[in-house]
Design goal:
The complex is a heterodimer of chains A (about 250) and B (about 150). Chain A is mostly helical and about 250 residues long. Chain A has 11 helices and no strands. In chain A, helix 5 runs antiparallel to helix 6, helix 5 packs across helix 7 and helix 5 packs antiparallel against helix 9. Chain B has 2 domains: about 80 residues, GMP Synthetase, Chain A, domain 3, CATH 3.30.300; about 60 residues, no CATH class. The chains are: A mainly alpha (about 250), B alpha/beta (about 150). Chain B: It holds the Pfam family FeS_assembly_P.
């Protein structure tokens, strides 16, 4: 079944922008982590995310068909063109909040990539198969760290609970479907994200319970990232740093 | 002049070391998936180990340089994503070479079998990540030396 090109492009930008923006955020820890091993781990996680971005945005550029590259999409679009969920652009906060955000995202990716491997689109399936191995590794580590810190000292527990209260209103957006998701589902390219919620909740509630953290009861979800309707103020600041070189020296090549 | 045989090209590729772990070749690592002639162009299909591995561009450059040195003129490198790379494709020769070099080879069980330095089997994991995307850090509790483990994926 053929699919509307604009919907497919939108879907691919959502995938690539999620990994790009989170990858950049995580890379901000490089040289600043509490200990060397964690610094290396975060830098490697960021590297995997940027690698996945090259595949998603590379395919997005191909589908777009305007002769652009993954780099063009990453460095030459402005905030309103980005389609990442708000969760990924939130500031790092402390180490605990960074790892909790990572876990909330990794858990989503681990459920989603499993489904995308069955995609009717061969390229989407191949990218998901490649990414799923890295995602499995990421979620194992972020889950372990969330449990270690949540069920750790009094202070680490308090900070993790605060981080969860801060991040929780941003979880719902990952499951907010629209007409693009409906088109993807109808074409067998990707599942409706709303259908992933049950599996996601089961996964995170197990880990958060082990971490002795209470999942907030509030169900309000901040939205606007994956549709591009309204990002948080943080994205623009992130882009000024990430896109600085191409803005200052347009077309500059390594 | 006729094209050198595909077998000849594989032999040339066999001599290219991995840029980060020079004791194993690109072929040992299992990332060269296909070599074929399309007319007078030699097409080499390469699969990335980790999607963001910075060695990927270095590897492509090494392949191109080597084949040019061997007299090939038209070379095309193709990235092949599927099937995704797995450490199962690493040759036994490479596993032995890694261990001699001080890097514990990948194991299906998910952790190193023994310390590559003293052979001890009381091991602890220090970090799931290491100096390159493909490695993790472990320590031997017998000789107390830290060592790298090639992750199994």
């Amino acid at each position: 079944m053929s699919v509307d090109k604009q919907h497919l492009l939108q879907f691919l930008l959502r995938q690539g922008d999620n990994t790009l923006v989170l990858g950049h955020r995580v890379s901000e820890w490089c040289g600043h982590s509490p200990i060397l091993e964690e610094d290396i781990a975060l830098a490697n996680t960021a590297l995997d995310l940027i690698g996945q971005t090259q595949m998603w945005l590379g395919y997005a550029a191909e589908v777009q068909g305007e002769g652009k590259s993954a780099d063009d999409l990453a460095f030459l679009r402005d905030a309103w063109d980005f389609r990442n969920v708000l969760l990924t652009e939130l500031p790092n906060g402390d180490f605990g909040r960074t790892l909790l955000r990572q876990f909330l995202f990794d858990a989503f990716q681990s459920v989603l990539m499993g489904r995308l491997m069955q995609s009717s689109d061969e390229t989407v399936a191949a990218i998901a198969a490649k990414a799923s191995k890295e995602v499995a590794y990421h979620v194992e580590r972020s889950a372990d760290t969330v449990v270690g810190l949540g069920d750790g000292t009094e202070e680490s527990h308090r900070r993790m609970q605060e981080a969860l209260e801060y991040l929780w209103p941003y979880v719902g957006e990952m499951f907010a479907s629209d007409e693009t998701d409906a088109a993807m589902a109808a074409a067998g390219i990707a599942p409706d994200p709303a259908s992933l919620r049950e599996e996601y909740d089961a996964l995170i509630s197990k880990v958060l319970t082990d971490a002795t953290l209470d999942i907030p009861a509030a169900t309000y979800a901040h939205k606007g990232g994956r549709t591009g309707y309204m990002h948080t103020e943080h994205l623009g600041h992130l882009l000024t740093s990430m896109q600085w070189l191409q803005r200052a020296y347009p077309g500059c090549e390594w | 002049m006729s094209n050198p045989s595909v077998e000849q090209v594989w032999e040339w590729l066999e001599t290219i070391p991995d840029p980060e772990i020079p004791v194993i070749s690109l072929i040992d690592l299992g990332i060269i998936r296909n070599v074929e002639w399309q007319g007078d162009t030699c097409v080499v299909a390469v699969t990335p180990t980790y999607s963001g591995c910075p060695a990927t561009s270095m590897i492509n450059m090494d392949i191109e340089t080597k084949l040019r040195d061997c007299g090939l003129e038209k070379i095309e490198l193709k990235q092949q994503l599927s099937p995704a790379w797995t450490t199962d494709w690493m040759s036994d020769k490479a596993r032995d070479a890694l261990e001699k070099y001080g890097i514990a080879p990948p194991q299906a069980a998910g952790g190193p079998k023994r310390c590559p330095r003293c052979g001890g089997d009381h091991l602890e994991k220090l970090s799931q990540f290491g100096s390159t995307p493909c490695k993790a850090q472990w320590r031997c509790q017998d000789c107390l030396e830290p060592f790298e483990y090639f992750k199994c994926i």
